[in-house]
Amino acid sequence: MSVLADDRKESRFEPITFSETIHDMLTELIQHNFGIKDMDAVVRRQYKAGKCEPNDYWRYMYLLRNYKTRIDNKASELTSFVRDAYARYPSSLERLEKRRELQDCAVSMCWQIVMELQHVVEKFNVDLNLYKRQVEALCREIELIKKWRQRDKKFETCLRGNN
Predict the structure, then answer these.
(1) Domain-by-domain residue ranges, the chain?
(2) In degrees rounded to 5, what are phi and psi of residue 53?
(3) Considering only Cβ atoms within 10 Å of each terminal Cβ, which end of the chain, N or C, has fewer?
(4) Distance (Å, rounded) from C-alpha 95 to C-alpha 89?
(5) 12 CB-near residues (< 8 Å, 6+ apart)
(6) 108-156: per-residue pLDDT in tens?
(7) What are the Cα distances from residue 57, in Å, to 35, 69, 116?
C-alpha cells in the first residue's frame, strides 16, 4: 500500500538531500547570470542613476564573476556542513556539541547566501521575484536543520542522564 506524498513524513536525510537540491538551484541561477540578460543595459541604468561611469562594463563583469564564485562556494560549504554534521553520530556530549556547531554553521551559511543574493539584486537592479524560489528553499533548509536540532535534544537528555 502506498502513502500519499502529502501524508509522508520527512526523512532524516531531508536536510542533506535538500541542501544538494539548493546547490543545484543556485548553480542553475549562476549559469544564467542571476537573470541578467544584458549587462550593457545594467550599466546604462546604473549610469543614468548616477551610480557608475559609462565605461564600467568590465567592473560589473568582475563583480558578477565575484558574486558567482562566492555564492557557489557558500552553497558547497552549506552542503559540506550538513554532511559533516550528519556523519557525526552523537555518542558523547562532545560529539553532540560539535554536531550542533556544524548545524549552526549550516544555518549561518543559508543566511549568508540570502545576503549575497540581496547584494546581487541591489548591485545589478535585478527583479527580486527571480530569486523567490531560491530564498524560499533556503528558508526551508533552515527549518529542516532546526527540526533536526530538536530531534538531537533527545540524545542530549540521554547522554546527560548517563553521565
Answers:
(1) 13-162
(2) -90, 160
(3) N
(4) 7
(5) 148, 151
(6) 999 999 999 999 998 888 888 889 999 999 999 999 999 999 988 887 7
(7) 17, 19, 21
List C-alpha distances in Å: 122 to 10, 42, 73, 86, 91.
35, 11, 20, 35, 46
The Cα 155–Cα 91 span in angstroms is 8
What distance in Å separates the CA atoms of residue 94 and residue 34, rounded to the nearest whole number?
41
C-alpha cell at 78: 552549506
Full-model pTM: 0.84
Which residue carries 556523519 as its cell?
87
Buried b (16+ CB within 10 A) or exposed e, 59-76: ebeeebeebbeebeebbe
DSSP state letters, 5-60: GGGPPPPTTHHHHHHHHHHHHHHHHHHTGGG---HHHHHHHHHHTTSS-TT-HHHH
Quick one: pLDDT at residue 73? 97
User: How many of the other CB atoms lie within 10 Å of CB of 9?
Assistant: 7
Distance in angstroms (rounded) separating the CA atoms of residues 69 and 62: 11
Query: How large is the angle between the packed helices 14-31 and 132-162, nearest 10 degrees?
Result: 150
